[in-house]
What we know:
Blueprint: H1 18-25, H2 45-61, H3 63-66, H4 75-83, E1 92-94, H5 100-107, E2 115-118, H6 124-140, E3 145-149, H7 162-173, E4 177-182, E5 192-197
Parallel strand pairs: 2-3
Antiparallel strand pairs: 1-4, 3-5, 4-5
Amino acid sequence: MAKRLPLRPRGADGSADDAEIFRAAVRDVIPLAQSDSRAPPGLPRNQGRARMRKAAASASDNLDETMPLIDALPNEEAAAAAHAVTGDGVLSFQRAGVRIQSMRRLRRGLYPVEDELDLHGFNQAEARGRLADFLARSRDGGCRCVRIVHGKGYRSGARGPVLKTAVNLWLRRHMDVMAFVSARAIDGGSGAVYVLLRA
């Protein structure tokens, strides 16, 4: 049975004082004990922080396997990756299970872009670290679609578009990436990609 509030005298306009009604409603409420929300439940405070630092360190150590630098790839694989990408070439990738309608919406820019990363001016190693952090932050933040600007590689000379080639390879290998396509012209065209993340 619901608790009945005591009747309060009404003001001149016939309304009760809202503050008094609220105080009466929460009179018997007991505050919860404060806890450190950063540490996972069940772990002492310092142990939770140590585990988070260890996870971050292992993620950066694992980058050489999951997101290798183009120069570190075997010659055949590096050549194949570079050959497949040109400055004006369109990138497209989808994992098994991604519906055709989802790819069509992504290609048309119909998913709202919830965050963006611009890799202009970074070398491969810097770009890789920033991309890995960005994808982890976007996933943890619940983002579904993000945009990554990698550029067209016109200043890369005869090597071709280095960052575009690397981003194409890295996104294909990243397990949180369900699909990606080159952006519409208004959003960077073939110098950027829309990325659909795992929900």
